[in-house]
Design brief:
299 residues; mainly alpha; 2 domains; globular
Length: 299
């Protein structure tokens, strides 16, 4: 039988259903690894639900899990562009859409579980959203992410035009801020995770500002952004205690420098920015050294 007449028993998956392939249709190890990392939390949540490991209030636990993954994935999404510029690794931009759509998936799951927890009663849900500021912020962020997800395709980029599309998707930054405030306003016991994420996000924004104004970031810029992240994490934690408790703020601020019992979330935020941005700079330096070594010696 001629090779040209061979047919598969089922059609090949289109690119939209094969996110492990690059734009040329080839298998991409980077995209495959990122896809596996993005799917892992969902698999873990399904496993916990199937094994009855979500506690006495499984919907509430799943709701919180989805919300945490949503804000974490969203922060990773906005980190892709500065990391790509710092590292010079252009392939990173190819996974940004995948990560952003995953952030929307977790946000939609979070909202869907909230609706389920309220019996899918539209009047009750609408009333709760209007009366509770943190729910209103979360709902606005959800609607914004829905608009970004709907316009994330190549066809919508062509239809809207590059500049308009860029301005629209620049709204991801205020959406991140709304998501972080939404997270902080509903935390009742420990704001550590929120402070860490807030500090890391603001440190990442500092990197973006430096890239936009200076055109590049060196080790001094990384140190500056890391310091910004540390201070922002500490400020976020202090703001939560000021809004939620009547405790004096001075001991809480001093706790950022006391490592006897824990490492403060502000330091985790600074370390996150330093490790990611510093690692990107080291990767760029390694690639440049490798490129110089591959050049033929001058005669």
């Amino acid at each position: 039988m001629p090779t040209s007449s061979l047919r598969l028993p089922f059609p090949a998956l289109p690119d939209a259903l094969a996110p492990w392939r690059d734009r040329n249709g080839r298998f991409s190890p980077l995209r495959a690894v990122v896809l596996a990392a993005l799917l892992a939390p969902a698999v873990w949540l399904v496993y916990r639900a199937a094994s009855g490991d979500l506690g006495p209030r499984p919907i509430t636990e799943a709701l919180r899990f989805a919300g945490d993954r949503a804000i974490e994935t969203l922060i990773v999404t906005i980190a892709i562009t500065p990391l790509r510029k710092l590292s010079g690794w252009s392939k990173l931009i190819g996974v940004r859409r995948m990560i952003g759509l995953t952030a929307f998936f977790w946000t939609a799951t979070h909202f869907g579980l909230y609706a389920l927890d309220n019996g899918f009663a539209p009047a009750k849900i609408a009333t709760e959203i209007v009366l509770r500021p943190y729910l209103l912020l979360g709902f606005v962020a959800f609607c914004g992410l829905a608009a970004l997800a709907a316009t994330s395709t190549d066809g919508m980029i062509r239809r809207l035009g590059g500049p308009t599309w860029g301005r629209l998707h620049g709204l991801v930054h205020p959406i991140v801020i709304m998501g972080l405030v939404h997270l902080f306003l509903q935390v009742r016991l420990d704001p550590a995770t929120g402070a860490w994420l807030a500090g890391a996000a603001i440190g990442g924004l500092a990197i973006r500002v430096l890239l936009a104004r200076a055109g590049g970031v060196g080790w001094g810029g990384v140190a500056f952004a890391s310091a910004v992240a540390t201070l922002a994490g500490a400020a976020a934690e202090l703001a939560w205690f000021a809004a939620k408790t009547m405790r004096p703020l001075a001991p809480i601020a001093w706790a950022n420098f006391d490592t006897a019992f824990r490492v403060a979330p502000s330091w985790w935020a600074g370390a996150t920015v330093a490790l990611l941005a510093g690692g990107a700079l080291l990767f760029q330096a390694w690639k440049r050294r490798e490129a110089r070594g591959a050049r033929p010696a001058a005669r």
